[in-house]
Write a structure and sequence with these properties.
globular; alpha+beta; about 25% strand; 6-stranded antiparallel beta sheet; about 450 residues; disordered N terminus
C-alpha cells in the first residue's frame, strides 16, 4: 500500500547512490505533448491490466530462464516510472535506504551529481572535496564507460550501481569533455562522502563569501552561524555554482533570511493537495545587506529556487551562466516499509510566476568561467616613503639583521601557509565570475551608502 501521508518533498537532485539521483534531460521535462490527453475509459483500463497480466504469464511459462514474478513486476515498475520522466523512479529497498542516508548529509560514493541529458549520462557537478572533485571530474563531462561497461542505453539506476562500491576501492570513468580531442580516463577511489554544505570565507575583511555545495538539512543553520560570526559584513556573495539542489525547506529557509514578505516559491500539480506555496516571514530578516548570487549550468533545483526568488524580489544581483532548469517536484511515497515510488507530482513557480523547468534562471549579468590576467604593481614604494624605507634597511644591515639566502631553497620551500578563511586578490583573479561578483557587490555597497 502506498502511504502518501509520509511523503518526502525533494527540491533538488538528491542522490541515492553517487550523489545526485534525480537529474534528467531537460528535453524530457518539456511540456510539449504532441497528442491531446484523453482519459482511458473503464473498459480500456481493464483491457490494459489484462494485457499486462497475460504478458507476465507468457514470460513465466515460456521464457528460457526461470524468472520470479516479484522480480518481473519490480523490473516492469522501474521501466514504467523511468518512461514517465527522467525524475520519477521505483526505489527498491537499497535505493530507498541510500536516499534516506544521503539527505542526512553522509553517504558512500564518488561525490558527483549525475543525470541523463539528451540521452547521455552526464555529470551535472562534482561536489567539493569529494573523490570525484579531487580526481578532476567537471560539470558537463559525459560518462562513456564505467570501468569496462559502456553507458549507452544505460539508465541512472544501472549506472549508479556500477559506480557504487566499498570505500577505498576504485572505479575508472571514461569521459568525453568539451574541447578535448580524445576521451579521458579518470580513476577515482570510492569513499564515504561527508558533506560540508556551507563554506564561509572573507574577502577584504568586509565581504562575506558563502559557498553552498548542496541543500542538506544543515544549510540554513550553518548560514545563520556564518553570518553571526561575521557581524561586521557589508555585503554577501552567495555561491551556488555546481549546486545540484536538495531539500526544499532549506532553500525556502535560506531565501527567508533575506526577504520579509511575499511568496518565495509555489508548486502546482494535478491534485489540489499538491498546490501550495511557501511564504517569507519578517522575523529575523536581513533586508539591507547587499547580496550577489553566483550560478552556472551545474546549479539546479533548490539552488535555482534560491537564485530565482532573490532575483524576482530584487533582493540580489545574479551573476554567472544560465542554470540547469530542473523545476519539477518529486515526492517519495513509501510502499510498505522498504520500498518507495519517487514520483513527479508538481512543478515549481518563482515569485513572479515563471517556471524554471527546462528553462533555468538567466543571470542578470552573464559572466563565463575563466581567469583574469593579474599583474603585480611594479611600484613597491611611493617616492615620499622610499628614502625612509632605505634608511630602515641600512639600519638592519648595521645591526646584522640580514637573513642569509639558502641557494638550495626553492619557492616551494618558502611558500607561506595559506589562510583558508580568506580569499586573496590573486585567488579572485583566477575566477572571473567571482571577481565580477566582488566588483558588483562593492558598487552595491557604495550605492546603499548614498541612500
Amino acid at each position: 500500500m502506498i502511504k502518501k501521508s509520509k511523503k518526502i518533498i525533494l527540491a533538488g537532485l538528491v542522490s541515492t547512490l553517487v550523489v545526485a539521483y534525480l537529474f534528467g534531460s531537460s528535453a524530457v521535462a518539456k511540456d510539449t505533448s504532441v497528442k491531446k490527453y484523453t482519459p482511458s475509459t473503464a473498459k480500456e483500463k481493464m483491457a490494459a491490466y489484462i494485457k499486462f497480466t497475460q504478458i507476465l504469464n507468457v514470460i513465466e511459462k515460456q521464457y528460457v530462464d526461470d524468472v520470479n514474478t516479484t522480480a518481473l513486476v519490480d523490473k516492469a515498475l522501474k521501466g514504467l516510472m523511468s518512461n514517465l520522466d527522467a525524475h520519477s523512479s521505483f526505489m527498491d529497498t537499497k535505493a530507498f535506504k541510500d536516499l534516506t542516508v544521503q539527505t542526512k548529509g553522509q553517504f558512500g560514493g564518488l561525490g558527483i551529481s549525475i543525470g541523463m541529458k539528451e540521452g547521455a549520462l552526464t555529470v551535472i557537478a562534482p561536489i567539493k572535496e569529494t573523490p570525484a572533485y579531487r580526481a578532476g571530474v567537471k560539470s558537463g563531462d559525459i560518462i562513456l564507460k564505467i570501468d569496462n561497461t559502456a553507458t549507452i542505453g544505460m539508465n541512472i539506476d544501472e549506472s549508479v550501481k556500477l559506480m557504487r562500491g566499498k570505500p577505498k576501492t576504485s572505479v575508472t570513468l571514461t569521459i568525453i569533455r568539451k574541447k578535448e580531442l580524445k576521451p579521458l580516463r579518470i580513476k577515482i577511489v570510492r569513499d564515504i562522502i561527508k558533506i560540508q554544505s556551507v563554506y564561509a570565507k572573507t574577502i577584504e575583511e568586509k565581504l562575506l563569501y558563502l559557498l553552498v555545495t548542496s541543500f542538506d538539512q544543515k544549510v540554513v543553520k550553518n548560514i545563520k552561524k556564518a553570518i553571526n560570526d561575521h557581524n561586521n559584513t557589508q555585503g554577501i556573495i552567495l555561491d551556488l555554482r555546481s549546486n545540484p539542489g536538495g531539500l526544499l525547506d532549506q532553500a525556502v529557509g535560506l531565501v527567508d533570511l533575506f526577504v520579509e514578505k511575499g511568496v518565495i516559491v509555489s508548486q502546482k500539480g494535478k491534485l489540489k493537495s499538491e498546490n501550495t506555496h511557501y511564504d517569507a516571514h519578517k522575523e529575523g530578516t536581513d533586508t539591507s545587506t547587499p547580496i550577489v548570487v553566483l550560478v552556472d549550468g551545474g546549479s539546479a533545483s533548490a539552488s535555482e529556487i534560491v537564485a530565482g526568488a532573490l532575483q524576482d524580489f530584487n533582493r540580489s544581483i545574479v551573476i554567472g551562466e544560465k542554470t540547469f532548469g530542473k523545476g519539477s517536484v518529486q515526492v517519495v511515497m513509501p510502499i510498505g516499509t522498504d520500498e518507495a515510488l519517487k514520483l513527479t507530482v508538481a512543478r515549481y513557480y518563482l515569485p513572479s510566476g515563471r517556471t524554471i523547468q527546462a528553462v533555468g534562471v538567466t543571470p542578470d549579468i552573464i559572466v563565463h568561467l575563466g581567469k583574469i590576467e593579474y599583474q603585480e604593481d611594479p611600484v613597491l614604494f611611493k617616492e615620499s616613503n622610499l628614502k625612509k624605507h632605505l634608511e630602515e634597511e641600512l639600519t638592519k644591515i648595521d645591526k646584522k639583521e640580514v637573513k642569509p639566502i639558502d641557494i638550495n631553497s626553492t619557492s616551494e620551500n618558502n611558500e607561506t601557509e595559506i589562510d583558508e578563511s580568506i580569499i586573496t586578490e590573486k585567488q579572485l583573479y583566477k575566477d572571473a565570475q567571482l571577481k565580477s561578483a566582488v566588483d558588483i557587490l562593492k558598487a552595491l555597497i557604495i550605492t546603499n551608502k548614498g541612500k
